[in-house]
Amino acid sequence: SRRGVGRMMQVLRDAVGDRVDIMIDFHGRPASISAALQFIEEVAPYRPMFCEEPVQPGDADAMRIVTERAACPIATGERLVGFKEFEPLFRMKAVHIVQPDLNHTGGILEGKRIAAAAEHAYMGVAPHNPNGPIAGAAALHFAVSTPNFVIQEEMSGAVPWYDDVVSVPMRRNGNSWAVPTTPGLGVEINEREAARHPF
Fold first, then answer.
1. Which of these, 22, 182, 184, 196, is most buried using a 10 Å CB contact count?
2. DSSP tag of 127
3. CB 165 within 8 Å of CB 132
4. Separation CA 105–CA 94 (nearest Å)
């Protein structure tokens, strides 16, 4: 129930305090615009950094209606592919934050096109990245070169061998990645270890 969602959000906020950002991913599951807005109404008092995919991606009109009425920032884009699928969001000012996945949307160059259009539309960029350490390094370079960057999803620790498949893993300083100073993306593949984890 929506009230249950509000109670869970309150418990979460009480547990982590005010110094931790919370992001809510609806993954397009609310059945209608009104249902999405009712869920957002329940979580908004606890100051989420953003609510992601409150309606199905690809419906910029519905996303715009939610964004105009929501009491917190709205994000979408992890399931959109290429600039053309993002363009209606920019034209309609339909979200606050776009979330391109560099692996799915056409790489760093296409991601930069999306980020530039988002900046022109006064939107932030919070890239989607549930991938490995090489994608993480590419995402880091994208993030540090994007003026409207907000936050980067990353998956270090998702599997015990995450850092083993690269011989020079990225370094973390607390909650942040250190920007590599070595050539290229700053990571080197350990091909022998990577071959042990083909999937």
1. 22
2. -
3. yes
4. 19
Catalytic residue among 104, 120, 128, 141: 128
Can you give the pLDDT of all 199 residues of the chain as single tens digits? 778 999 999 999 999 999 999 999 999 999 999 999 999 999 999 999 999 999 999 999 999 999 999 999 999 999 999 999 999 999 999 999 999 999 999 999 999 999 999 999 999 999 999 888 889 889 999 999 999 999 999 888 889 898 888 877 678 888 788 888 888 888 888 899 999 988 7
**Which two tokens mark 89?**
């969001």
141: annotated active-site residue? no
Percentages helix, strand, coil for the chain (3-state, rounded to 5) are: 45, 10, 45
* Residue 124, SS3 per DSSP: strand
Q: Which residue has the tokens 């009109």?
A: 61
Strand pairing category for 172-173 and 176-177: antiparallel
The gap from C-alpha 137 to its chain's centroid, in whole angstroms, comes to 15
CB-CB contact of 36 with 29 (8 Å)? no
DSSP state of 94: -
pTM: 0.92
Q: What are phi and psi of 146, to 5 degrees?
A: -120, 110
What is the greatest pairwise CA distance in the chain?
A: 52
